[in-house]
Structure formats: C-alpha cells, structure tokens
C-alpha cells in the first residue's frame, strides 16, 4: 500500500513539475489541460492555464477560461470556476480555515470551504477569495480585492474587504 502511495506521489510531483517548469507560459495549453486532468483536476475544453499553478484543493475550471500566472489554491476545500472566466495573475483562493479554539490554542478544528465563481467573471490580479464565497455571473473583482462575502451577479467589487462599487449593465 505504501508503495502505491509513493508511486502516486511521484506521478503527481512529476506532472506538476512538467506543468510548472517545462510547459509554463503561454503555450502548450492542451498538454497542460490533459496533464492536470490526469491528476483529478477538471479543466474544461478551451481553457488556458499559463502556470505555474499551486493547488491543494479540488479544482474545477469550466470551458473557455483564462487562468493567469501563479494561481494559488490553498486548503482542502473545493473551487469551481464556471465557463468563460478570466483569472488574472497571482490570484489566491483560500478554501481552508479553522474554528476559533480555546485560549491555549486559538486555531481550533480545521474547516474546508467551497468557493464558486460564476460564468463570465473577471478576477483582477492579486485578488484573494476567502472561504465559503459565491461570486455571481458577469462580475468584475478589482485587482488586490479581498472577497469575504458573496457577490451578486453583474457587480464590480473592490477593496479590503471587498464591497460593491457599482452594478454592471
């Protein structure tokens, strides 16, 4: 059993090395998509991942998406990105956290979260999306925003924490 785990670990490390070092950049999109799908991620047809990519959660990317450089998905939760989304460089999704613990150790029991990004959404560079957040369809998340609450369809949000700046037509 340990040997099988070791082989799986080696395969994962090899595939991520290929995606993040050999095929990194704005080419080999189909190859990267196939390699990531072989690891259990779900990357839709026509989606383009620039890389490098760091992901410890379950990741599903719809069709026709653009995933910029240095996407980071932390935690052991789930991130679902619907069709035709654009994710700028250095965006972070945080799908793990902790309950507030006792005085002797405030980081209590671990919690896994799900994050959903609706179709047609554009997330600006260096934005951070935290815990159980649903971003509606057709939204724009301004660069460097920290999204801590749900975002309604067709909204432009920004700031720390992110707030609605205006509704989009």
Describe what you observe in this structure:
- The protein has 169 residues and is α/β, with parallel strands linked by helices.
- It contains two helices and 19 strands.
- The chain has helices at 2-22, 29-38, and strands at 42-43, 48-49, 53-55, 58-61, 66-67, 71-74, 78-81, 86-87, 92-94, 96-100, 107-112, 114-117, 122-123, 128-130, 134-135, 140-141, 146-147, 155-158, 163-167.
- The strands form four sheets. The protein has a seven-stranded mixed sheet with strand order 2-5-8-13-16-18-19. The protein has a five-stranded parallel sheet with strand order 1-4-7-12-15, with helices on one face. A five-stranded parallel sheet has the order 3-6-9-14-17.
- The chain is globular, with a radius of gyration of 17 Å.
Q: What structural keywords apply?
A:
single chain; 169 residues; alpha/beta; seven-stranded mixed beta sheet; five-stranded parallel beta sheet; 19 strands; 18% helix
In short:
With 169 residues, the chain is α/β, with parallel strands linked by helices. It is built from 2 helices and 19 strands.
SSE layout and pairings?
Layout: H1 2-22, H2 29-38, E1 42-43, E2 48-49, E3 53-55, E4 58-61, E5 66-67, E6 71-74, E7 78-81, E8 86-87, E9 92-94, E10 96-100, E11 107-112, E12 114-117, E13 122-123, E14 128-130, E15 134-135, E16 140-141, E17 146-147, E18 155-158, E19 163-167
Parallel strand pairs: 1-4, 2-5, 3-6, 4-7, 5-8, 6-9, 7-12, 8-13, 9-14, 12-15, 13-16, 14-17, 16-18
Antiparallel strand pairs: 10-11, 18-19
